[in-house]
Amino acid sequence: MPNIDFAELKKSVPILDVVRMLNIEGLKPERDAFRGTCPMCNSKRTFVVTPGRGWYCHGCKAGGDIIKLVAAMRRLEPREAALAIQEHFGNDTAPSRTVHRAPDQGHGAVDRATQLQRVLDRLQPEHQALQGLGISAETARQFESGYNPSGVQAKRYSVAIRNLSGELVTFAGIALDREQSPRIAFSSFEPASMLFNEHRIAEGTDLMLCRTPLDAILAVEQGAPIESVTAFLTESVSPRQLEILSSLMDQKKIESLWL
Question: What is the pTM of this model?
């Protein structure tokens, strides 16, 4: 296991960056803090994040630092939570230098690619949790996916997300039970910027637009061609996402769209 300096990690990573890492949305500024609905107990206006101090939920009666927040959200032990933060922001624990750097800028791109490959290598396509979703090991391998035992998406079904050129850019962490929130978790990625499985879509295919990435995977499990299924990566769809879909269909000379 890699070494983790808990004190340095808590000092180096701002809590608002961890809030974004966890996809906690809807927090509103109020004096020197941010307040909103608790992502764990769903109580409104009980969840308070104070930069430089930490977080507290008046509904859960729980709070603490960034490590405790990740541990509570992901149901991890403190060391696993710290490792998830370190993995997300890079070993130098400097998010502004590692996470937000453009893909083509020097050693940061190499670091990011290495981190993503490590995640891909540890996924378990034969894990029984996937069988509970109705996904066979063969289909999981087709989608470069599997049970994720550790890291940011620990205890989720992680699926590789590649751009139109086939470059691995992130993973979609699909919840394995109803208590995991959000239903799909992403790391350092804007899910409205791409379509699921877009790099595999074949020219001239009858495109099948599924409701979610999991639905697309299950469609392939049931016999649909992997080169014909796609899905948006968000629950709601913006005009920009519809433009991305239209552009893909034009580029691939697709005339039929099945819903």
Answer: 0.62
